Amino acid sequence: MHEIVQAATRFAATHVAPNAAKWTREGRMQVDALKAAAAEGLLAFQAPRTWGGHEIDFGDKLDLLQVLAHHSYDFAFSLTNTAGCAANLATTLPRAVAERYVPAMLKGERFGGSALSEPGAGSDFAGIKTSAVKDGDGWRLTGEKGWITNAAFGDVFITYAQTDPTQGWRGIGSFLVDGTRDGFRRADPEALAGGGVIGAGGFKLENYRVNADEVVAPPGQAFRRAMASVNQARTYVAAMCVAMVDACLDTAVAYGKSREAFGSPLAAKQGWRWMAADIATDAEAARQLVASAAAKIIANEDAALASAHAKKFATRMAVQRISDACQLMGAAGLREEYPFLRHLASARVANYTDGSTEMQNERIAAILLGPAQ
Predict the structure, then answer these.
(1) Which residue from 20, 292, 338, 353 lies 20 to 30 Å from 73 (Cα-Cα)?
(2) What is the pTM of this model?
């Protein structure tokens, strides 16, 4: 096991597990927890070694996110967004520009992520309306972003904007946006019934100036890079869903062995045992789909189909099987001390992130059948 995965395992036990219920109750990300994670090197897990990062491979990344998601999917998702943003800036921007952001992000002094979604464009990436207009050697961005992880408190975002609507996806570029500069206005955080710990929110850009050396990916490249990265995101979201189901099943099994009803433990009753077995089977099926997608990503092969299969199945499965595991507990499953309800809310969130379940179906169908006529 990679040393940073070991550090994540320790951090999950000492910081995430004891606080996950409280974070969910309060409905907001605890920035102090991210700072504590940074102190353990966790925000640097993906950054290049030349920046003091760990530069772990995708398999280790899955392990790291799963040990965190076992207790809090939302915390893991928030953390990987800042870590991924920092790593992206470190590898794409000129060193002098990246120096203004990457060290602070790795130390937990600044947070961020990717700003793709808009109030009117989520899974329809090519339909974004935020515009980028040439301004000398730079650009001016105008538009609104919504449903952005970490936007409630972060201020460093790789932001996607349309430079030429007549070009469709080919006109989309990605740009560094600094929330401390003129032209950036933060919107109120999303008031979510669950999943508030991811810090979902949005911001408006009003004639925001992007310098020439702050272009992350030019038109023609940004969309392709985003689609390549989304296959990884779909796979790690699926992996985190498996971790949540494992956590719920482990909790239910321990409870079922100790809780007696009608003269014997719950775990001795056939109906209870069969439901537990069904949960375990579906979790294992999702685990294998994740492994298949991860193997393609690690081998640098096309993972579009494998990642869509994994995310579609794992997110659907998590909603059903977390609910089933809660049922195994009876009314006790509703208690805050147990992970069921917070994981159930997070599983619902996972069904929408990085392409909805329906978009996975469309992706699978397009590969299987070709484009719809």
Answers:
(1) 292
(2) 0.96
